[in-house]
């Protein structure tokens, strides 16, 4: 007799596909930017600013898009932002850095919508005993998108040029988005058609901008867990944003080899996120698993800054893999903990509030990192400081009962 398909399977597959697509759109920037900036003469530090603009787009929809998420639905909002992001990639054909920054801002909208959309849907469909694992599987889509970007984009840029790669990447975002279009109508919780409407911004809507952050103050553990996410994000965004350009500029790697190392790091993130989610459920403690991830994340980030051209390539690959398993593996457990500690009717708001803190870090850290390296030329100090900041996770991690 054929067993019935679990009710949570369709939601997690749909959210996983959209999460992977959103991540691919974000990881596209630091991988293709070296080729674009070289042709247009933007300079290596522009990668940090483009990434910051992408994070600013995510921050904008987290702060101002809560009403859209409620009325249109989380999955539909994510899908619409992916369509816009795919279209905005065409603006990279213009040589203006300002236009590229605006395009990155639009592309970042999907990154901001992904966590609230996924948290709201999965919290309703996840079995309690598998919540950390399911959230971690969903978050494994983030590094998987990076794996795809790291392997595919350099493989297209080298023989065909970055413009052809741009077109293919736009299609790779658009196709899975449209493939999941009908599913959102069944999974999203939206108001009835009689009450569904948009309204022009007013004082009341401006007041709603405070709701995501205000919702984190419901209990101390919720706020601490959100701060933990922002501290983890410091090392993660440095790895995601600067690995390729660092390997090319400081270690003399080709774009293709740097892309492979980036893909290995992201593959470590896929394995690490699922393993950390399983470990947290098995131990019944998110605090213990996140403590291990914080120590490994800080160590690998410092070691990346200390690396030099004399290091064998295999040591860089191993370091990148371990970093993926730690610096890029915390998200699923942290997001699941935020959802678990949230009042049931405020899950999308608390998820958005926590993501706002992470996106602020993702916006400020690449900018500061790029400016520091441009001024001092010292990658080692920049990576070292990022690793030290991540160790603060051990101080802010809440107790299980808090």
UniProtKB/TrEMBL annotation:
Source domain of life: Bacteria
Transmembrane portions of the chain: 12-35, 47-69, 89-109, 140-158, 164-183, 227-248, 254-276, 313-333, 354-375, 381-397
MF terms in GO: transmembrane transporter activity
UniProt keywords, alphabetically: Membrane, Transmembrane, Transmembrane helix
Record flagged with keyword Transmembrane: yes
Domain Major facilitator superfamily (MFS) profile: 11-402
Protein name: MFS transporter
